[in-house]
Amino acid sequence: xxxxxxxxxxxxxxxxxxxxxxxxxxxxxxxxxxxxxxxxxxxxxxxxxxxxxxxxxxxxxxxxxxxxxxxxxxxxxxxxxxxxxxxxxxxxxxxxxxxxxxxxxxxxxxxxxxxxxxxxxxxxxxxxxxxxxxxxxxxxxxxxxxxxxxxxxxxxxxxxxxxxxxxxxxxxxxxxxxxxxxxxxxxxxxxxxxxxxxxxxxxxxxxxxxxxxxxxxxxxxxxxxxxxxxxxxxxxxxxxxxxxxxxxxxxxxxxxxxxxxxxxxxxxxxxxxxxxxx
Length: 278
Description:
Elements: H1 3-22, H2 25-41, H3 49-68, H4 99-103, H5 108-119, H6 124-131, H7 135-151, H8 160-173, H9 176-182, E1 183-191, H10 193-197, E2 203-205, H11 207-214, E3 222-226, E4 229-236, E5 239-249, E6 252-259, H12 262-265, E7 268-272, E8 275-276
């Protein structure tokens, strides 16, 4: 097999790693394409191309995570942590719908170490090479991340805005199963008269029907507050036109109402996470 054939054979695995690390399927595809370009741009002889591609892809993800982070984190030695009692347990498969949100609370290095080890079973010497650290330090990073993730379930319940943003991210990414897990069994979509006139559906009922409607959609919607409630909205020329007003209960989306009435739109403001944008 030549390099191109090997790359195409490895692409699904690379995309899976990047998607889990970044939490964004579209960004993951972009990162893997960058790895492809780097492969064709290097003059070095690559003995283990799958390993090289894994390292390059993960380091590109690490760069992206660092660019998102508003403050320096974890470039120092992670320090002492307790021994891992469950290295053989893939905790990433047990933390439920909150995982992607909890991952956002980890430092970039913690996130990479945790995902590579707990989700994909990479050994710590391999992770250490990716992070340019020692196997002991890589183990400590993964252990600390695992502790944070464990502590987030269930004692650290997701805030309503985190549920809303997780739902919208799953919608944009076409993650149908994740949408189902974020929806209450009796979830429903409704709309006010102005939104119906704008073309939104008047009523959708049921967890599966709501998930199917939003699956792969809402790419242009932006996070907002409607009064003090976290929501999402479509804008045109800087003004909100239709709002997705969420009803969240016990960490699940119970209802979404399309609103386009002027008195509602007048109270829409953009937000970043749980803070109003200036």
